[in-house]
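Field log, afternoon session.

UNIT: design team B
ACTIVITY: writing a sequence onto a fixed backbone
BACKBONE:
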C-alpha cells in the first residue's frame, strides 16, 4: 500500500513553496493584483483559473510559487488539490492563507500508485503538504489508506487474488487492528452455508470457497455487521459470460474490498461498536462440479432457491452471509457488492445504487454522500416486484424472467435474508473507474465507502 504518512505533515513554519488557489470568478481580481512578471508568466502558461489548471509563478531569485485553479476557492472539495499533487515537482508545499480541509484527501490519493506488475523505475519524489489541522491530518490519512486498500485489492489480477488470498488480506487487516478471524470452509461450509458452497464448488481445490468473519470490539457496544461480496473471479458459471463481460471480473470482489476497508476505518478509529465483518469468498468457475441452471439450492435461512441463471451468483453467497449477520441481532447491516449490470445501466459507473429498508438510514447516507463528495442514489425496494422472483418448485428464484428492474429484483432477493426490523442498506457499486480523473486513476475505486464511513462515525461515534 502507498505510504501516505509522510505526505501530509503538521506545519511548523519550515520553508515551503506557496500554493495560491484561484477560481474563475476571482481570476481577474487576483491577476490584477500581481506584479508584471507574474502576470506575464500566467499569460504565457494560458492560466485562467480553470479547474485543474496549474501555473508556476516567479518570485525573487530562485524562489517560486504555484497557482492552482479550483472550482471554488472558498469551498474546497476532496479533489481540489489532486491535479497540483500530480503535477508539481517534489518538495514541501503550503496553501496560501487557507487550510486544505477535505482537499488533503485528494492531495494524498493523487500520489497513489499500483505498480506491482511494472518494471521498477525511479520513483517520483514526494509532494508534501503542510497543514495546521493535525486532527484532520489523521482522518485524511486513514481515508486515503482505506481507499488505497480497495484500489489495491480490486486492481490485483484474479490469478493472484483468489479466495485464499482474500482470506489473507482479511487476516492482515484483523491482525493490524487486534481483531479475531473465523473461517468456515469444507464440510462445515457445505452444511452451514450451502449457497456459498454451491457457488464455489466448481473451482480448483486451492481456490475453494469459504466464509471469512472478523469480530472486533466490546460486546457491550452496539453491534454492526458489514457484508461484502467476495467473488474473486466470475466466469458466469455454466451461464458463461462472453469474453467482453469477463474481462474485468477480477473486480467482482470489490464489495469485499469495500467492507475490509470500512472495517479498518472503524477499528483504527476505535469506534465504540461491536463489529462483525462477513466476506463470502468464492470463484464462480466452470467444471463438472458447477451448479446448474434449474438446480434448487437450500440456503442457510432454510429458504429454497431455484437457479435461473448461474451468473447471478453474488446474491446467493450474500444471502447466506446476510442470514449469518442477522443471527447476531445487529443494530445495523450494510452490504457492498458489485452486483448488477442493471445498476450501471441506470446510474453509470460513478454513482452507486443504494437500497435501504429504513428511510432514516437512507436519508443519512444520501446526505453524507453529498457532504463528503461520495454520492449515492437511492433506488426503490419496490414490493410489487417481489413476485418477479417467484418459482414453481422453490421458495423463490435467483433471477426474474423479465428483462427489467434487474438491480431492484436483486436487492429484493437480498432483503429476503435480512431480519425484519433490522436497518439495512445495500450498495450496488461498480468499484472501478473506467477513465482517469485527478487523484482517481483508471482501475479499482472506492465508491460509497466514505459516505458509509461518515454515517457510521456520526451514528456510533463517542
Amino acid at each position: 500500500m502507498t505510504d501516505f504518512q509522510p505526505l501530509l505533515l503538521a506545519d511548523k513554519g519550515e520553508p515551503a513553496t506557496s500554493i495560491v488557489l484561484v477560481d474563475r470568478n476571482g481570476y481577474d481580481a487576483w491577476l490584477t493584483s500581481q506584479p508584471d512578471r507574474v502576470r506575464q508568466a500566467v499569460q504565457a502558461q494560458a492560466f485562467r483559473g480553470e479547474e485543474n489548471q496549474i501555473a508556476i509563478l516567479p518570485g525573487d531569485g530562485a524562489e517560486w510559487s504555484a497557482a492552482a485553479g479550483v472550482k471554488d476557492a472558498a469551498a474546497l472539495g476532496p479533489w481540489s488539490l489532486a491535479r497540483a499533487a500530480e503535477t508539481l515537482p517534489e518538495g514541501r508545499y503550503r496553501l496560501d492563507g487557507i487550510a486544505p480541509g477535505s482537499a488533503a484527501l485528494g492531495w494524498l490519493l493523487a500520489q497513489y500508485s499500483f505498480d506491482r506488475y511494472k518494471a521498477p523505475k525511479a520513483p517520483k519524489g514526494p509532494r508534501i503538504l503542510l497543514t495546521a489541522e493535525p486532527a484532520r491530518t489523521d482522518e485524511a490519512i486513514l481515508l486515503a489508506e482505506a481507499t488505497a486498500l480497495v484500489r489495491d485489492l480490486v486492481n490485483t489480477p484474479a490469478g493472484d487474488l483468489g479466495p485464499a488470498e482474500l482470506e489473507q488480506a482479511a487476516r492482515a487487516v484483523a491482525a493490524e487492528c487486534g481483531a479475531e478471524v473465523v473461517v468456515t470452509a469444507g464440510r462445515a461450509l457445505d452444511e452451514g452455508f450451502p449457497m456459498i458452497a454451491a457457488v464455489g464448488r466448481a473451482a480448483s481445490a486451492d481456490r475453494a470457497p469459504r466464509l471469512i468473519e472478523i469480530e472486533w470490539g466490546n460486546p457491550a457496544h452496539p453491534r454492526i455487521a458489514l457484508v461484502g461480496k467476495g467473488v474473486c473471479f466470475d466466469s458466469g458459471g455454466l451461464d458463461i459470460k462472453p469474453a467482453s463481460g469477463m474481462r474485468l471480473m477480477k473486480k467482482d470482489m470489490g464489495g469485499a474490498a469495500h467492507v475490509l476497508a470500512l472495517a479498518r476505518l472503524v477499528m483504527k478509529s476505535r469506534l465504540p461498536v461491536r463489529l462483525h465483518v462477513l466476506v463470502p469468498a468464492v470463484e464462480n468457475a466452470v467444471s463438472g462440479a458447477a451448479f446448474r441452471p434449474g438446480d434448487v439450492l437450500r440456503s442457510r435461512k432454510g429458504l429454497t432457491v431455484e437457479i435461473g441463471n448461474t451468473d447471478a451468483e453474488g446474491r446467493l453467497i450474500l444471502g447466506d452471509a446476510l442470514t449469518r449477520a442477522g443471527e447476531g441481532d445487529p443494530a445495523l447491516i450494510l452490504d457492498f457488492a458489485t452486483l448488477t449490470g442493471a445498476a450501471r445501466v441506470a446510474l453509470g459507473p460513478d454513482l452507486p445504487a443504494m437500497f435501504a429498508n429504513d428511510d432514516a438510514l437512507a436519508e443519512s447516507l444520501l446526505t453524507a454522500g453529498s457532504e463528503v463528495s461520495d454520492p449515492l442514489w437511492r433506488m426503490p425496494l419496490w414490493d410489487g416486484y417481489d413476485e418477479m422472483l417467484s418459482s414453481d418448485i422453490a421458495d423463490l428464484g435467483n433471477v426474474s424472467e423479465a428483462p427489467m428492474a434487474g438491480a431492484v429484483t436483486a436487492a429484493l432477493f437480498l432483503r429476503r435474508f435480512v431480519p425484519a426490523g433490522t436497518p439495512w442498506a445495500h450498495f450496488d457499486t461498480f468499484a472501478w473507474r473506467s477513465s482517469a480523473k485527478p487523484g482517481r486513476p483508471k482501475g479499482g475505486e472506492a465508491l460509497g465507502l466514505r459516505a458509509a464511513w461518515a454515517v457510521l462515525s456520526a451514528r456510533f461515534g463517542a
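LOG NOTE: The CA atoms of residues 374 and 450 lie 6 Å apart.
NEXT ACTIVITY: expression trials, pending approval
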